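[job 4471] stage=fold_predict status=RUNNING
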Amino acid sequence: MEVTIAGETRVAGPGCAAVVPLNTSHAVRARTDARTIVVDHPRRHRIGGVETR
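[job 4471] inference complete, writing structure tokens
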């Protein structure tokens, strides 16, 4: 996975974690097929205009 946080891009491989500070621009791009776990804390009630539960 290619992870960009506040304009800085790095490659994250198996076992890596990326922490995005609150209100910081970020993007993720899959360079190959991959599985990713995303954890939001505190919980967000809307993501991209979609209600979460």
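[job 4471] summary: The mean pLDDT is 89.
[job 4471] exit 0
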